[in-house]
Amino acid sequence: MASCSCANITNEYWNFTTPGSGKVNDATIDELSSKKVSAVHKSITEGTDKEQACSLKGLLKSMKGAEFVEVSSTEQKVIDKLIKSLCDVIGVEEEEVVVTNNGSGEEVKKEPETIIYGCLDPYADNYWCKENLGDCIDNKPPEGIEDVTCDYSEELEVDNIYLFCNANECTNETPGERVTPTNDIASWMNNGALDYDHIYKVKAGIKKVIESIKPTNGVFLKSKKGFYTTDPLPETLIDEFANALTVMVFNTKFNKDNSYKTFPYRKVTVYTRNSQPLGQFKIESNKDRNGESDSIKEIIMRDSPTTLNNRFRDDVGTELLDLTQESYLIKLFKANNLEFTVKDGKIVTKDIKEGLGMVLKEEPIGLAKLLK
Fold first, then answer.
1. CB within 8 Å of 324: residues ≥ 6 apart
2. 158: part of which helix (H) or strand (E)?
3. Which of 14, 28, 136, 347 is the most buried (most CB within 10 A)?
């Protein structure tokens, strides 16, 4: 028989406090300063502490007899999943069983049972039946399979390119990651500690932060491209930005090889598919909250000199959205040593001598070459 036993592992007895929500994951542990079960379980399964794993296993087993669990089959299953994933830390051993042979009277050892592990959630990417098609009937696995951590993925559509980095300007040349129309997939693992709609809760929290962006730190032209517009920001771009950031939050938190407890990127630059800049932002993260609905603390619109130069190559001759900003922007462009300036309320190149006509003789250079 398979055993996930704590008999030989020293562990403390933990008590729980019943949650007002009626959800196992929201219960708090008295001995751990009222930390939630979900947070403690996640910390334990990411480590190797067998003593804590056994303490939590004992708490979960006692919780199963609580009234709020007994009346909910869903919460009973949550406890079963949480306990099973703890066994990955505790260790599953095969016990030798001694039986008596009735024919000869001799004691013989029975061969240990073979344990088959697999994800039992039909909605998961690694659902056992998806990987063992011939062994399932009506898309249901045979009895006796031990449930393990399930892998999930969800496409969150984007039409533009989102470059995440920690440099002053995010381009193809800077180290970082990207979300594009071809890799807009959020991936995560669930050992029973997450609600089924967790990804949408995270996106809702991120979207709320994006909606609070004050578009006051950018240079705005009458072309009003992308995020460079007046309040409110375009709803379609807000939702798409939330999709892109959610994808990156999940992929940095639940990446099997490199999990970040705090969202690791401080900058993001948004481009169209043909390399036209749509917006640049500074990202402030909440420490140790990556993968949660409050992963991101604040997002601030900003422009680097590189981004401005890239934008204005395609906007020579475009009028400022607010003409009263001309003198301020002239000083700003000069201080940042830009290739462009403002004249008569329009974007022009620095070396203008005989009016806008001279400037427009040169074909504007877009970002296409820069980003190849």
1. none
2. none
3. 347
- State the sign of the Cα–Cα–Cα–Cα dihedral 103, 105, 109, 112: positive
Q: How far is CA 112 from CA 106, 115, 116, 171, 313, in A?
A: 19, 9, 13, 57, 72
Residue 271 to residue 274: CA distance in whole angstroms: 8
pTM of the predicted structure, to 2 decimals: 0.65
- Distance, in Å, from the CA atom of 17 to the CA atom of 13, rounded to the nearest integer, reads 14
Residue 341 CB-half CA count within 13 A? 14
| CA–CA dist 249, 255 (Å, integer) | 10
Alpha helices in the chain (DSSP H): 37-45, 50-63, 67-70, 73-90, 128-131, 198-211, 235-253, 305-312, 326-335, 356-359
Through-space distance between the first and last CA atoms of the chain, rounded to whole angstroms? 59
CA distances from 124 to 105, 162, 297 (A): 50, 27, 30
Residue 104 identity: S
Q: What is the DSSP letter of 231?
A: S
pLDDT tens digit sequence for 272-294: 998 888 999 999 999 999 999 99
- CA-to-CA separations, 142 to 81, 127, 129, in angstroms, rounded: 18, 13, 9
pLDDT tens track for 318-332: 888 888 888 888 888
